[in-house]
Amino acid sequence: MTMNVRRLWxxxxxxxxxxxxxxxxxAEDNRxxxxxxxxxxxxxxxxxxxxxDAGSGPRVVVEVTGYQPAREGAVRxxxxxxxxxxxxxxxxxxxxxxxxxxxxxxxxxxxxxxDLPKELATGKVQLKVExxxxxxxxxxxxxxxxxxxxxxx
Length: 153
What we know:
Layout: H1 2-27, E1 33-35, E2 40-46, H2 51-54, E3 59-68, E4 75-82, E5 88-94, E6 102-103, E7 110-115, E8 125-133, E9 144-152
C-alpha cells in the first residue's frame, strides 16, 4: 500500500512544480488576445534582415492569427509602442478586411506593418494592440483579436 501511495505522490509533486514554471515561461509579459477595453501586449523582437539594413527606416510587423468581429458595430486595431520613460506612442491603426471571423494556422497569419521611430527601435520593443470601437456604429462588444507575434524589421 505504501508503494502505491508513493507512486501517486511523486508524479503529482513533479507536475505541481512544473506547472508554475511552464506558465511563467509562456507568459513573458505577453497577453496575446485583445478585446475592447483590454489590449493585447506583445514584445516585438528583431527578425531577419531589417529595413534599416536595406536602407529604409525601421518597421514593426504585427501578425494577427485570429479575429472575431463585433456583435455590435465595427472596430479597428490601434498599435502603440512603449517608450523608455513608460509613456506610449501610437504608430498606426488597421482594420481587418473583410470583417469576418477567421482563425489562421501558423503559416497564414495576416500581417500589418508600421513605421517605428528610430529612437525606439532598440532591441526588444513592447507593443500594445488595442481594439477601439467606431462609436458611431456601436460599442464593439464581442470583438476579439489574437496576435501571433510581432517582429522588428
